[in-house]
Design brief:
about 140 residues, mainly alpha, elongated
């Protein structure tokens, strides 16, 4: 590939942007849930709240995510330039896993939205890279 450094910059910029956005989103959401407003504190049961639960399903998900991350790291150079989009999709899955493991209620939708956004951007990047690689070979 003749534009290797260009693809690397795009991949790392996208990974960094999504990592910063995910960290900010998790921190701000968990902070709001940890300190409910006075109106929410008076209610007997809050609709959305922090409720860490680490059971067998979450453990299995963590093992699968760890295996996928190890596989991605192992094959990182071989998957170029598609390693960045794959990392985004895996990051979106981890983001959703965090929300489904540590929260309860409607706030879990934030995890689903984050996964859909990361998977959509990753899919678009794969399509763009595939189209560019076909045109560069001609």
């Amino acid at each position: 590939m003749q534009n290797k450094s260009f693809y690397q910059k795009i991949n790392w910029v996208m990974i960094a942007l999504f990592a910063i956005a995910a960290a900010w989103s998790i921190f701000s959401t968990f902070t709001v849930l940890a300190q409910p407003s006075p109106a929410d504190a008076d209610a007997d049961i809050q609709q959305s709240r922090l409720l860490p639960f680490f059971g067998p399903d979450q453990a299995a998900g963590l093992v699968i995510l760890g295996a996928l991350a190890a596989l991605l790291i192992w094959k990182w150079k071989r998957l170029f330039p598609f390693n960045g989009p794959l990392a985004l999709v895996l990051g979106g899955i981890v983001y959703a896993w965090i929300f489904f493991t540590f929260t309860i209620g409607w706030v879990r939708m934030v995890g689903i939205y984050g996964f859909i956004l990361a998977a959509g951007i990753g899919f678009i990047m794969v399509l763009i890279y595939a189209i560019l690689s076909v045109f560069q070979k001609k």
